[in-house]
Amino acid sequence: MRQIQIVVPDSEVEDYLELLSVYDENPLHTKATGPFDTMIIRVEEEKVDEVIELLKNAGLEDKGSIFIMPPAVTITSQEKAVKHKKTITPSVELSAQASETSEMTRGFVYMTMISAFVATLGLLLDLQEFINIVVSAP
After folding, report:
1. pLDDT at position 113
2. What is the distance between the alpha carbons of residues 60 and 5, in angstroms, rounded to a whole number?
3. d(CA 63, CA 131)
4. Which segments within the chain are labelled E, that is strand?
5. Is the pTM value of this prediction over 0.85?
6. What letter does residue 105 receive in the DSSP assignment?
7. Do the beta carbons of residue 46 and residue 78 sit within 8 Å?
8. Confidence (pLDDT) at 111
9. Is 13 in contact with 37 (CB distance < 8 Å)?
10. Which of 2, 1, 6 shows the shortest CA–CA distance to 39?
11. 72-109 pLDDT, tens digit each
């Protein structure tokens, strides 16, 4: 797979999304603040030239820009995981696992109370020193 990044005028984004939907059903479309938007599409290696020719015929060279990403940039995190024989756990699944395995134990409550007490004691001691400095100042 290769990624092709194109910069198109705001007014023609929908036309290019429709034109490229044959090659990538879910292109990444970034709305810019200026008069141009950026789109990134993923295509098969052998169809890159075909897509570039299609974009040129649609007049994109005159109105915007075309960037072909090198193959190293287009490796997805899932492909990296397969390469390194790791599995990627989606964030929703991770948060579900974390909430299932977390429990409020006595030890946790005691340690939280002790740390709050120590922090409060430290603040009070610092406050006392501050008051002494302010009172003794001329």
Report:
1. 96
2. 12
3. 69
4. 2-9, 28-30, 36-43, 65-68
5. no
6. -
7. no
8. 94
9. yes
10. 6
11. 554 555 555 555 555 555 667 777 777 777 778 898 89
Q: How far is CA 75 from its chain centroid?
A: 15
- Looking at this protein, which amino acid is placed at residue 106? R
C-beta separation of 64 from 8 below 8 A: yes
Cβ-contact 10, 35 below 8 angstroms? yes
CA separation for the pair 43, 28 (Å, rounded): 12
Decide which of 33 and 103 is more confident: 103
Q: What's at 9, amino acid-wise?
A: P
Name the CATH topology of 2-83: Alpha-Beta Plaits (3.30.70)
Q: What are phi and psi of 81, to 5 degrees?
A: -65, -40
Give dist(CA 56, CA 137) in Å, integer: 78
Helix (H) or strand (E) holding 119: helix 106-136
Higher pLDDT, 116 or 53: 116
* Residue 127 identity (one-letter amino acid): L
